[in-house]
Design a protein that fits this description.
With about 375 residues, the chain is of the alpha/beta class. It has helices at about 15-25, 30-35, 45-55, 100-110, 125-130, 145-155, 175-180, 200-210, 215-225, 235-245, 265-280, 295-300, 310-345; strands at about 55, 70-75, 75-80, 85, 115, 135-140, 160-165, 230-235, 250-255, 285, 305-310, 355-360. The chain has a single domain, classed as Aldolase class I (TIM Barrel). The protein contains 13 helices and 12 strands. The longest helix has about 35 residues, at about 310-345. The protein starts with 15 loop residues before the first helix and ends in a 5-residue tail after the last strand. The structure holds ligand FNR. Ligand FNR binds near residues 116, 165, 259 and 309.
């Protein structure tokens, strides 16, 4: 299944970009494309990472903050750092142990793991090896019984929140997958939902996703689960306000890593407006293009409570299983500590808007 490793793929990984290069060298091109790609012309995909390039951190000196503490508290739980694993389908595409290895890797850092509805391994098995908080990402299917059973199983297995993805009434048109006629290889399938004909992710979504999903889904979800509900895929201020009014316990500012609406803005650009609109009502998380510790601190300075990381975790999993996942998360954590120390903040409570400036706004 795996392609040859070219000479330019680094043996050792010191950055998330090193892991990305390794993963690209190892994966068959169609699987690489499925992971790396976005919808349409991939404008939004590129915008997510590019937005970080326009933001500078403004260091403060002689603050005595050389030993920063990265811990936060979210939804009643302590996290060792404001970093979690974003929900990504089918970890078994890149590693035979799939989400089990990811959970082991995340456990080493004690960081949370949001498990996809389309996980390739069994929820209870993931829970058995997890070491940090586990959240279940939920796609709401036309078949509400399938959806409800998934939620009930997660709750029973000790998952601590439901992350309802709200930006997918249908799948975005991911042209790389269309051109590759992408199919899941034999042996890769969702392990936690009943049904058949999963081979084409786009084809399955077209049949199974509820295209009529609206805000009433929240009260339905409340009626089947007592877990906190996180809405993932909010990009606008009025939707953010509405989410709070509808009783969401947290939101994730996300454009699905550029895989849904191509032409939607970078998440980092929308973050400050959403934080202002929510006005402290619920924690605001963000994902999309976070690749360095500086990026994490930039998100927090703009008001995010935490970040989720998607593709880099799969790169780590591809390159080294649980060790690779632990490697990716460890690098981000080390870089976050470096960044905090060098910016002059010793705890995340001390991080605020005054630490960042858009390039264009500098005097
Ligand atoms: C995703 N994402 C995703 N989101 C979700 O809610 N449910 C899912 O099953 C998936 N599956 C998935 C597969 C793959 C291969 C990718 C790359 C992404 C989106 C994911 O949770 C997250 O929003 C983005 O990946 C964040 O952007 P970065 O960190 O990948 O830039």
């Amino acid at each position: 299944m795996r392609g040859a490793e070219p000479a330019d793929a680094p043996d050792e990984a010191f950055t998330l970009a090193d892991y990305e290069r390794r993963a690209r060298a190892l994966l068959p091109p169609a699987i690489w494309d499925f992971i790396a790609g976005g919808a349409g012309e991939e404008r939004t995909l590129r915008a997510n990472e590019a937005a970080f390039e326009r933001l500078w951190l403004l260091p403060r000196v002689l603050t005595g903050a050389g030993r920063p503490i990265t811990g936060i508290r979210l939804l009643g739980r302590d996290w060792p750092a404001p970093i979690g694993v974003a929900p990504v389908a089918y970890h078994t595409l890149v590693h035979p142990e799939g989400e089990i290895a990811t959970a082991r890797g995340a456990a080493r850092a004690g960081l949370p793991f949001v498990v996809s509805t389309f996980a390739g391994t069994v929820l209870e098995d993931i829970a058995a090896v997890a070491g940090g908080p586990l959240w279940l990402q939920l796609y709401c299917f036309r078949d509400r019984d399938v959806t409800r059973r998934l939620v009930e199983r997660a709750e029973h297995a000790g998952f601590e929140a439901i992350v309802l993805t709200v930006d997918a009434p249908r799948l975005g048109r991911r042209l790389r997958d269309v051109r590759n006629d992408f199919r899941l290889p034999p042996g890769v399938a969702p392990a936690n939902i009943s049904g058949d004909d999963f081979a084409s992710p786009a084809g399955h979504a077209a049949v199974a996703f509820d295209p009529a999903l609206d805000w009433s889904v929240l009260s339905w979800l409340r009626s089947v689960s007592g877990l906190p509900i996180v809405l993932k895929g909010i990009l606008g201020t009025s939707d953010a306000r509405r989410a709070v009014a509808a009783g969401a316990d947290a939101i994730v500012v996300s454009n699905h890593g550029g895989r849904q609406l191509d032409g939607s803005p970078a998440t980092l650009e929308m973050l400050p407006g959403i934080v202002a609109a929510v006005a402290g009502g619920v924690p605001v998380l963000i994902d999309g293009g976070v690749r360095r510790g500086v990026d994490v601190l930039a998100c927090l300075a703009l008001g995010a409570a935490a970040v989720l990381v998607g593709r880099p975790v799969l790169h780590g999993l591809t390159a080294g299983g649980a060790d690779g996942v632990a490697g990716v998360l460890g690098i981000l954590l080390d870089e976050l500590q470096d960044t905090m120390a060098l910016t002059g903040v010793d705890s995340l409570e001390a991080v605020d808007r005054s630490l960042v400036a858009q390039r264009e706004q500098l005097p």
